[in-house]
Design a protein that fits this description.
Aminopeptidase, 4-stranded antiparallel beta sheet, 3-stranded antiparallel beta sheet
Length: about 150
């Protein structure tokens, strides 16, 4: 199973790419996690979007957030893997590629994320370290984590 990675600024996404991206985020963050929240938060427009395609399926995606938007550091957010591709390593490949691109785009500096708490060990395995207290975001426990490159 080969993943084809595409990284584009928001305004470079095709209408179809944007549709599949927003559909996947809605499928997981709203429907699967039963979380009513406004996914479109006016940050997407300043971000790069990494899309992982397997054949015609959007298997995984993240947005790479510039410094000063969510945190002082660059950030990786809206990390999502299609239920169809979970357990295949797609999530790990997605994050490895996202880390590489974040460093390429924003230089060799710390990367901060707001991780869902149940994924803390996953992000720790990628070099992220928990900082601060657990907090609720849209009814889901999160923790900030930082990766020093």
């Amino acid at each position: 199973m080969v993943t084809r990675w595409i990284c584009k600024k928001f305004h470079e996404l095709t209408v179809d790419e944007l549709y599949f991206l927003l559909r996947l985020r809605s499928e997981v963050f709203v429907v699967e996690q039963n979380c009513v929240f406004l996914d479109m938060d006016n940050k997407d427009q300043v971000c790069h979007h990494l899309l992982g395609w397997i054949g015609e399926d959007l298997a995984a995606s993240v947005r790479i957030v510039p410094p000063g938007i969510s945190y002082g550091e660059p950030s990786i957010g809206r990390v999502v893997t299609s239920p169809k591709y979970r357990g295949t390593g797609s999530g790990r490949l997605l994050m490895q590629e996202a880390i590489r691109l974040t460093v390429q785009l924003h230089g060799n500096q710390p990367i901060r994320i707001g991780a869902q708490l149940y994924l803390k060990n996953f992000y720790s395995s990628l070099g992220f370290v928990a900082e601060g207290e657990i907090y609720l975001e849209d009814g889901i426990e999160h923790i900030e984590m930082v990766r020093v490159t």
